[in-house]
Amino acid sequence: xxSNTKLILLIILFTLAQRPIETASNRSFPASFKxxxxxxxxxxxxxxxxxxxxxxxxxxxxxTNPDYIDNGDNxxxxxxxxxxYKEDVAMLKDLGVNYYRFSLSWSRIIPLGIAGSPVNPAGxxxxxxxxxxxxxxxxxxxVTIYCWDLPETVEEYGGFPNPEFEEHFAYYVRVVFQxxxxxxxxxxxxxxxxxxxxxxYGTGTMAPGYSHSGLTxxxxxxxxxxxHAKAYHVYDEEFRTQQQGSVGIVLDTSxxxxxxxxxxxxxxxxxxxxxxxxxxxHPIAFGNYPPVMVERIDQRSEQQGFNxxxxxxxxxxxxxxxxxxxxxxxxxxxxxxxxxxxxxxxxDVISWDSDMNVxxxxxxxxxxxxxxxxxxVPWGIRKLLNWLxxxxxxxxxxxxENGVSDKDGLQDDQRINFFREYLSNVLDAVLDDGVNVTxxxxxxxxxxxxxxxxxxxxxxxxxxxxxxxxxxxxxxxSAEYYAQVIATRCLVDVCD
Length: 496
Ligand SMILES: *[C@@H]1O[C@H](CO)[C@@H](O)[C@H](O)[C@H]1NC(C)=O
Ligand SMILES: *[C@@H]1O[C@H](CO)[C@@H](O)[C@H](O)[C@H]1NC(C)=O
Ligand SMILES: *[C@@H]1O[C@H](CO)[C@@H](O)[C@H](O)[C@H]1NC(C)=O
Prior knowledge:
By secondary structure, this protein is α/β, with parallel strands linked by helices. The chain has a single domain, classed as Glycosidases (TIM Barrel, Alpha-Beta Barrel), CATH 3.20.20. Helices cover about 45% and strands about 15% of the residues. The chain has 17 helices and 13 strands. A hairpin with an 8-residue loop joins strand 12 and strand 13. Helix 4 packs parallel to helix 6, helix 9 runs antiparallel to helix 10 and helix 16 runs parallel beside helix 17. The radius of gyration is 23 Å and the shape is globular. Bound molecules: 2-acetamido-2-deoxy-beta-D-glucopyranose (NAG) (3 copies). The site of one 2-acetamido-2-deoxy-beta-D-glucopyranose (NAG) has 3 residues, from loops. Homodimer. GO terms for molecular function: beta-glucosidase activity. Belongs to the glycosyl hydrolase 1 family. Its EC number is 3.2.1.21.
């Protein structure tokens, strides 16, 4: 007879054996594969009003509505990287990264942001110093021109939904290419416009905090896509011959796994990918919005009594102008969500979600993290990479963000496992599936201002002490692991 303790032990062992344990590949990353790490200006710089910097929409919302952010946090000082950039570069050097992805603060460079307004010399000097420091340390810069910190004046002029936005952005990118183009080979125009538009103007969960989904988020996206294309052509026509760089845009999506193998759920998964990712990538790759968006939004708009579709139209000239404006495909991705078919939303509901018409949910068995939306699902990244490769004709792909928020402090074993398992799936996609991924960028160099979550969500490989006025930085265990992966190009102790 088995004693109770033995029985319990057997059940535990059985449960452990049942848990699908992923095993990281022991193959090596190709010699040409590059590893980097990312941050963004507003999340780390601080110095929000120093040396002539103008106010941006996140300064504004934090100062005028502190309840908007967890614990009333703001990014006035953040990680103080405006003063500590040399220390940041020393950390990058310790990690051994091939490149650093960071962003420029528009309102530090052009305080008012609007076309024709004055340039701030101190802002130019700051980024020239940072770029030079990187180059002196053999770290390639991968520069994001815009990451979420719109100058407040541009917002007050109507922000992204105003068609004039394109002119303000074109003015800004010329200043950027003129002043930094000799030091930079890889440019990203916008970071995650899905979030700027859907959360900024659709759900109100990001600055400027408007909630008109299905309306201004579509206008926002329309103008960002046109501004991106304009920036690409400005580079092409005025700078590329001399500067010899590449230009792309960073888009984000989760992998949407069909809830079942049934045709309706498979279609729901494809529809979710098209509404989240295709919304931006389809025009940039093929000239216009995904057919499923055009069809559904045109039809629902008509049924709702609008005299024209809520999804703006590109002219034939614009379609030609936008098509093909990318030198690489760049993706930020963190997790997987189940996508399931559902009954049509009530026709009175006007939103991106009801236009898409997909139910989404997480699997309770997926490992939780420090973020409610982020579960550890390593196989999802391989499926997403295959979908991207197939849908966009095998482009060169940069993973420009991937990472996890921790609850562990300095011994962040969950993050080490996350990187090992996700990178193993990236490697399988490259070596077994023929997906042309050439770069992997960890998010993020250090704990920082995580937008509405303030300093409560910690994505850093370096811990930052936000109680310390010096904002002292300490490597977590994952920093050592990532440095080892970069040095050996191997995820486990020994590779073949
Ligand atoms: C819809 O109504 C607006 C406002 O009256 C008008 O300017 C526009 O031309 C109309 N569009 C169509 C397609 O009828
Ligand atoms: C990946 O893309 C790069 C840049 O376009 C190209 O040089 C390389 O040949 C591609 N590799 C594969 C395996 O397709
Ligand atoms: C790598 O993994 C393969 C298959 O799992 C195994 O046969 C091989 O011995 C491993 N190589 C090393 C160096 O551990």
